[in-house]
């Protein structure tokens, strides 16, 4: 609670990336790259800066069969597990898996 500003006021625009919301998650979205058609609808709907259109440099390759530069990538430090991407994916390529803690 100490990290939250008075009245939860946001003093700077576009500061969401400084908050790590991954700890809120109960379920984790996992992309099935065999089904993903790279439409980026998940990227459009995600309310957090948690989905990238490309895998950031240095992050692990999620699937050896997919070219590194083309994969949609979920940043689990920022994914809060809301499930919007799971609901919106048109080809049901994202599975919601219970977190093991
Ligand atoms: S919405 Fe589904 S098919 Fe589209 S990029 Fe995301 S995971 Fe892939
Ligand atoms: S579960 Fe929610 S926060 Fe996480 S990647 Fe999907 S839309 Fe974004």
Explained architecture:
By secondary structure, the protein is mainly beta. 10% of the residues lie in helices and 14% in strands. It is built from two helices and four strands. It has helices at residues 41-45, 84-88; strands at residues 27-31, 51-52, 73-74, 94-98. The strands form two sheets. The chain has a two-stranded antiparallel sheet. It has a two-stranded antiparallel ribbon with strand order 2-3. The longest helix has 5 residues, at 41-45. Bound molecules: iron/sulfur cluster (SF4) (2 copies).
Annotation, overall tally of beta strands: 4
Order of helices and strands: EHEEHE
Largest sheet: 2 strands, antiparallel
Silhouette: globular
Radius of gyration: 15 Å
Which blocks of ≥5 consecutive residues have pLDDT under 50?
A: none
Question: Could you give a short description of this structure?
Answer:
It contains two helices and four strands; from the N terminus they run βαββαβ. It has 101 residues and is mostly beta strands.
Features:
two-stranded antiparallel ribbon, 101 residues, binds iron/sulfur cluster, single chain, mainly beta, Alpha-Beta Plaits
Present the secondary structure layout.
Layout: E1 27-31, H1 41-45, E2 51-52, E3 73-74, H2 84-88, E4 94-98
Antiparallel strand pairs: 1-4, 2-3
The structure holds iron/sulfur cluster (2 copies).
One iron/sulfur cluster binds next to α1.
